[in-house]
Write a structure and sequence with these properties.
Aminopeptidase, 4 helices, globular, about 170 residues, alpha+beta, 7-stranded mixed β-sheet, two-stranded antiparallel ribbon, 9 strands
Length: about 170
């Protein structure tokens, strides 16, 4: 039985419990301004950008007033999501969904969806009208966000886009 808990900076070490391995068969790529699915057949063995990067962003988000929620199976964290608290965009209406990861053996059980919706409530409380998502370009990841109702970002954050131009820039209207 899964349990959801608010996380604090002191929980940052729990990220180490996530088994982030996944096989990416296809990913979205861009050529001449058009998106297409490319076969890449890539085995991702760890969190993208590495564990230290994710820990640093986790701590920075929480110290900046953001929110983190974990999903636990007994005492093991099997999923987590992090929301930044800095409103941005022309009308200061976006908050960044900075991280959301589910362990390999716990995917497709609704954990990601539950974490997403819980952070949506937190985003509303923090004054956001939209979530901003820099989605990994893997076909399954983009499909997950689209299934939740995410759409292409109407206002692309150039700073976030520059961090990884392969990411798909999405938004979710709260």
């Amino acid at each position: 039985m899964y349990q959801y808990k608010d996380l604090s900076v002191q929980n940052v070490h729990k990220i180490e419990e996530i088994d982030a391995e996944w096989f990416i068969h296809k990913a979205w790529r861009q050529k001449n301004g058009e998106l297409f699915l490319a076969e890449i057949n890539w085995l991702e063995k760890e969190l993208p950008n590495g564990l230290p990067w994710h820990k640093e962003h986790f701590v920075n988000s929480l110290e900046g007033g953001g929110k983190a929620i974990g999903c636990f199976n007994n005492d093991t964290m099997v999923g987590y999501a992090v929301l930044d608290a800095d409103l941005f965009g022309k009308n200061k209406e976006y908050l960044l969904l900075d991280q959301i990861f589910i362990s390999k053996n716990d995917r497709n059980h609704g954990i990601g969806k539950e974490l997403f919706h819980r952070l949506c409530q937190s985003a509303i409380q923090l004054g956001a009208k939209k979530l901003y998502i820099c989605s990994a370009s893997a076909e399954e990841t983009v499909a997950f966000y689209r299934s939740l109702g995410c759409i292409d970002a109407t206002e692309v954050n150039e700073e976030l886009y520059a961090l990884d131009p392969r990411d798909i820039q999405l938004e979710y209207i709260l």
